[in-house]
Amino acid sequence: MQFFPISTPTAALSLSEDGLCLVEIKKHWRTRSLRHIARLPLSPGVLTLSSAKPNIANPDEFLSQLKALVKPYRRPFSIALSLPDICARTSIFDFASFPTKKSEQTALVNWRFQQDLKLDTSQSRLSFGLYVPTSVRDSLSPGNIDHVRVLGTAIRHEIIEQYENMCLEADLIPTSVGMSGLDIFDLYRPNIQDILTAENPSQGSAPPVIMFLFMSHWGFTFLACQESSPRFIRTKALAIKTEAHHPQDSSLDSESEEHRETKEHGPTSSGDSSFDVPQESATGNNPYSSYIAMKVEKEILATLQYYFEMYPLSATADSPVNLFMTTDLTHGQSLMPPLDHIQETLKASGGHEPHIRVTSLSHASHFHALNTHLAVSSQEEAALPGYARLMVA
Amino acid sequence: MIPRVQRNLSAPGIHFIQLSQLGLLLLTAGALTLTGSFWWYGNSLHQQIDDLENQAITIETANEQLVSQAKAAGLDLSHQAIRSIPPKVNFVKQVRERVGFSWTQLLTDLETAIPSDITLNSVSLDEKTDTILLQGSAASLPDLNRLIHQLDKHAAFQNVLLSQHSTKTTKEEQGGSHSVFSLTVTYDARHSTSHRIGVPTQQ
After folding, report:
1. Chain-centre distance of CA A189, in angstroms?
2. Does the reported pTM lie above 0.90?
3. B3–A182 CB contact, under 8 Å
4. CA-CA distance, A64 to A62, in Å (whole number)?
5. Can you tell me the mean pLDDT for A329-347?
6. Residue B4 and residue A128: Cβ atoms within 8 Å?
7. Distance from CA of B44 to the nearest CA of A (A)
8. Which of A29, A59, A332, B169 is 20 to 30 Å from A244 by CA-CA measure?
């Protein structure tokens, strides 16, 4: 019996089609650290991630696994739910002017979702945030909401309520629900800021463009920020599974190996153990088929190309553009396209060719900064979305 | 400055539920505090009750001792005897009031109120109604009238009522006449601040 079950959650649930992952953090006086990670597998077909229809095809097995996962805990208790980005639709809208009333703002964002994404927002739960680009912010008087960007996320009621109902049936109260890619970006915000400050201490504000890539089992989310506000976001659904799941793709292994051997990464912040250059590409310890690797690479390159064509940088900008990437996949860094492929793609697209600097962000800085006793395991990566939800909510 | 982009898609009512939980928490805390204060107040009342019971027992014991001592001394302290005390007390009070009535004061007041040419034959007092019956004679009706006015003006007399008067002629007066009267007046002995001296004089 819990007297106050609704509280700030200290445990989070993240999902994949392969399993459920529960992560628990420990609250200290002013800090929080990882306490426990638990994972249980799901049978194939139990969970099918989608933004259009209910995800849980077999609620009985999902519920039994969820109950088994939280069995050691005294329930009911509050939990944070980290959903894969492809369960929702996330977009960034530009507005020349924006109303000040919350109800009018919501109606307008709903309308843009309907117009731009053909999404029936009457059947969706919506959350959005306002951002004013620095160039506009400096020239405007306070209180004037003009030229804003809105980052909005909409998820169908039937999808999110199915997850919430499963949690409630397992005596878990989902008090916080977030999308993994956005949460992980916020989790790494201080690290990105530190890297940028270390690279250019004289630069007071953030550089004009910051790119962030989060790869997961369901695909990837690419987010670009310009002038301290989100500018472009793309969530691409791709079933990224290891070769154990896709033996039929083994014919493409030689191609994949070639890709891995030519893979290059930009410099990382030297001396900072939290930002690791992936080494598995050099060792050939890549669990992903060449087909998957090629597909992921093509989609990432296409996304970058589209972004720089849509929002070209000024020709005078000579400083490198930072692309920060992270993943909750084991050896997921190996799926990152080689830097020369990126540069070649951007060069082929014409216009000003930006110099890209790729920085891989590791979860180890978060998971092991205060938990030297916690053994490194393969479950750690899977816990990243849930951990991020707990830390940023 | 790198923007925060995370969004919370939790159920819209969750904040209301959190507030409700906070309200219930406060309500529970208040109820517990109230229960504790009631418990403390009840305890103190019980303590007072115990003290009073002890005192009552002590008094009952003392009473029993007193009754037994009285019985030994020949005094009846039974309930019937005690119940008969109030009528006796009332009787004593009445006796005391009668004893306390000052005839001297009454006569003094009458002396000041009655003109000199009025002759009083009798002064009688009705103790129950504090009414005085005056019987006497006046030389003429104007004298009688003056007597009534004087009594009316006097602070010690109220409700002057001339109940009877008649004019009589005697042989000695040889054609002269006088008025015989009978009047009642209420007497208030408390008006006077003068010292009362008990004069148990009957009319």
Report:
1. 12
2. no
3. no
4. 6
5. 89
6. no
7. 32
8. A59
